[in-house]
Design a protein that fits this description.
Layout (H helix, E strand, L loop, with lengths): L1 H34 L37 H15 L3 E9 L14 H8 L4 E10 L5 E4 L1 H4 L4 E5 L5 E3 L1 E6 L4 E5 L11 E2 L10 E6 L7 E12 L13 E4 L11 E3 L4 E9 L10 E5 H14 L5 E2 L2 E5 L2 H6 L8 E6 L4 H5 L6 E5 L2 E2 L3 H9 L6 E8 L2 E8 L1 E2 L3 H12 L20 E3 L4 E5 L2 H7 L5 E6 L4 H4 L6 E6 L2 E2 L3 H14 L2 E7 L5 E7 L8
Length: 539
C-alpha cells in the first residue's frame, strides 16, 4: 500500500513538472515571438502615434473630487502650489514676428516706395507680438490661439527653464481660434500637460490660469468657473464655434493660448479672450474647452487640417416668443430656420420649423452648444438627434457630410453671393468627403477631381486637386501645398486624379524623385521635387 502511495506521489510530481515545463516553454515562445515581429511590407510608412497629454499624475498633486472635497485654507494653498509647480513647465512663452504690412493699424507703410522703406526701416520691418502656449505631447506639440500666430513670419518658443526653440506651424483652425505648433530637440521629450474632462466642469469650481501676461512669464492666477457654454461673438464669420468656459481668474494680453487647469493639475481650457473696455482684465476671461481643443489639435497634428462635418441647418435659440408661437410647453432647444437641400439634416428628415432638443441623449438649449457638439465630429459620424415637432419628440439618425459635398458647395457659394463672410476654415483645405478623395498613403497625399467652381477659381482646364497632405509624409517633406491643383508630373500633363495616379506610378518605376507642377489659388505655378517612397507602386 505504501509503495502504491509513493508511486501516486511520483506521478503527481511528474504531472506538475510537465505543466510547469509547458508554461515555461509557452512564455519563452511568446517572448521570442514578441522580440522578432513578423515581416511587414517594407514600403509601409510607420507614423509615430502622438499621445496628447501626459497621462501620469504627479505624486505631489493628489487627485481631488472637487465637488465633494472639504478643504481648509492651508490645504487649498498647498494644492495651488503643487498644481502651479506641476503645470508651469508645460506652459510656454511664444514670440511671433509678423511683417509690419500685415498690421492693419500701420497701412501708412504702403505709402512709401521700396527705396524709402529700406532707408527708413533699414530692412523689411517686423512687428513682434507675444502670447502663450501649452505643450500637449512629449513630442513637442504645442497648442495656442490662431490669433497669436496669424501671419507669423517666424515663431520662437521659450520654456519655463529658459530653453529657446524655433517653432513651425503644424496647422490652424480659425473657426475655434486654435493653432498647433511643433518644436524639436533631437528626440528629447518635453513636459506635457495632463488633459482633463472639460465637459465635467461646473460653475463654482476652482481653476488656475497660467500664461505670460504683459510679457510676465510663468504667471499663475486663480479663480472659479464663472459660467460655461458662453458665446461672446469674438470669432468672425457665420461658422465660428464659441462654447467658452468663463472664469474670473485674471487673464490679460499675453495670456492668449495659455492654460486653464483644475485643482488636479489637468488642462480644462485654453485661455483665448477677455471681456473688457480698458484692454486689460476686468473680471471676465474666456477659454476654449479642452475637449474641443483635443479634437481640433488631434486633426491638425494628423492631417494638418480639421476634418469637420456639417448639419446643413440655419438655427436660432428658442426664446419665449418662439416657444409661444410653436405652442411649446417648455422653452427649450434650438429652432431650425432653414435646411440645406441634400445636406445631412435634410437627408435624415429634419425640416424647417423643427426644434432640436437633444444630441446623443444630451439636451441642447443654445445654438453655440449645438455647434460645439457637431464640431467634435467628423464627416461620416452619425448623431442621434432628438427633434420636437408638433407636440412630440422624434429621433433622427443624422450622418454628417463633409464640406466638399455638392449640396454644401452650393450652400457656401450662396452665402458668398449674399455677401456673407466665407467660413474661416476656407483659407485651408476643407474637411474631406472621403467618398471623393483617393488616398495615396505611401506618398501621404489625398487627391480628387476638380469641381466646376474650382476650375474657375484656379483658372485651369483640368488637373488633380490636392485635398490634403499628411504631416511627416514625403509630400509634406517636399512642401507640396494643400488646396492646389497638380497640372504636371515629371513633364507629363495631368488632367484628372486617375491620370495623376498613373503618372506617379510610371515616374516611380524609373526615377528616385518626381517633379510636380502645381497651380495655386493666387495664380502662381510652382514646382516641387518629391522623393519616391519605398514600394511606391503600392498606393
Amino acid at each position: 500500500m505504501k509503495d502504491q502511495q509513493q508511486i501516486s506521489s511520483v506521478k503527481i510530481l511528474i504531472g506538475v513538472g510537465l505543466v510547469l515545463v509547458g508554461l515555461t516553454t509557452g512564455i519563452l515562445f511568446m517572448l521570442i515571438a514578441g522580440s522578432h515581429p513578423e515581416n511587414v511590407d517594407g514600403g509601409q510608412r510607420v507614423v509615430e502615434r502622438v499621445q496628447l497629454g501626459n497621462r501620469e499624475a504627479p505624486a505631489n498633486v493628489p487627485v481631488l473630487d472637487s465637488l465633494n472635497a472639504s478643504l481648509d485654507p492651508r490645504t487649498l494653498n498647498r494644492m495651488f502650489r503643487h498644481v502651479a509647480d506641476d503645470v508651469t513647465p508645460a506652459v510656454v512663452y511664444i514670440q511671433v514676428e509678423v511683417p509690419l504690412q500685415q498690421d492693419g493699424q500701420r497701412e501708412w507703410y504702403h505709402n512709401f516706395d521700396e527705396d524709402a522703406r529700406r532707408r527708413f526701416f533699414q530692412d523689411d520691418p517686423l512687428r513682434q507680438s507675444v502670447g502663450s502656449g501649452v505643450l500637449i505631447s512629449p513630442q513637442g506639440y504645442i497648442v495656442t490661439n490662431h490669433h497669436v500666430v496669424e501671419n507669423a513670419e517666424s515663431i520662437q518658443v521659450t520654456l519655463s527653464d529658459k530653453r529657446l526653440y524655433d517653432a513651425r506651424i503644424v496647422g490652424t483652425d480659425p473657426s475655434t481660434d486654435l493653432a498647433v505648433l511643433k518644436i524639436e530637440d533631437g528626440g528629447r521629450d518635453f513636459p506635457a500637460v495632463r488633459l482633463g474632462n472639460s465637459d465635467g466642469l461646473q460653475v463654482g469650481e476652482w481653476v488656475l490660469a497660467i500664461g505670460n501676461p504683459f510679457r510676465l512669464t510663468s504667471t499663475v492666477t486663480a479663480g472659479i468657473v464663472s459660467a460655461t457654454g458662453r458665446q461672446v461673438n469674438i470669432i468672425d464669420g457665420d461658422f465660428g464655434i464659441e462654447d467658452f468656459i468663463q472664469t474670473d481668474a485674471a487673464i490679460n494680453p499675453g495670456n492668449s493660448g495659455g492654460a486653464v487647469v483644475n485643482l488636479n493639475g489637468e488642462l480644462v481650457g485654453i485661455a483665448t479672450a477677455i471681456a473688457t473696455e480698458s484692454g486689460s482684465y476686468e473680471g471676465y476671461g474666456f477659454a476654449v474647452p479642452a475637449n474641443l481643443m483635443e479634437r481640433v489639435a488631434g486633426d491638425l497634428i494628423e492631417y494638418g487640417e480639421v476634418r469637420r462635418g456639417y448639419l446643413g441647418v440655419v438655427i436660432q435659440n428658442v426664446d419665449a416668443g418662439v416657444a409661444r408661437r410653436l405652442d411649446m410647453e417648455e422653452i427649450q432647444g434650438i429652432y431650425v430656420n432653414d435646411v440645406t437641400d441634400g445636406g445631412s439634416a435634410a437627408n435624415a428628415g429634419i425640416r424647417q420649423g423643427d426644434v432640436i432638443v437633444s444630441v446623443d441623449d444630451r439636451a441642447v438649449n443654445a445654438a453655440n452648444e449645438l455647434q460645439s457638439t457637431v464640431a467634435r465630429k467628423r464627416p461620416g459620424d452619425v448623431l442621434d438627434i432628438g427633434v420636437w415637432r408638433e407636440g412630440s419628440v422624434i429621433q433622427f439618425d443624422v450622418e454628417l457630410l463633409g464640406r466638399n459635398t455638392p449640396a454644401y458647395e452650393r450652400w457656401f457659394s450662396e452665402l458668398r453671393e449674399q455677401g456673407e463672410e466665407e467660413a474661416p476654415e476656407a483659407e485651408r483645405a476643407p474637411p474631406l468627403d472621403q467618398d471623393n478623395v483617393f488616398e495615396l498613403s505611401r506618398w501621404g497625399v489625398g487627391l480628387r477631381n476638380l469641381t466646376a467652381r474650382e476650375l474657375n477659381a484656379f483658372d485651369v482646364r483640368a488637373g488633380a486637386y490636392v485635398a490634403y497632405v499628411e504631416n511627416g509624409s514625403v509630400a509634406d517633406d517636399a512642401a507640396l501645398p494643400r488646396d492646389a491643383v497638380i497640372t504636371e508630373i515629371s513633364g507629363s500633363r495631368v488632367e484628372s486624379t486617375e491620370q495623376a495616379i498613373n503618372r506617379l506610378e510610371e515616374a516611380a518605376q524609373v526615377d528616385e524623385t518626381v517633379l510636380i507642377k502645381v497651380r495655386r489659388r493666387d495664380g502662381i505655378s510652382a514646382y516641387y521635387e518629391m522623393e519616391v517612397p519605398a514600394t511606391a507602386g503600392s498606393l
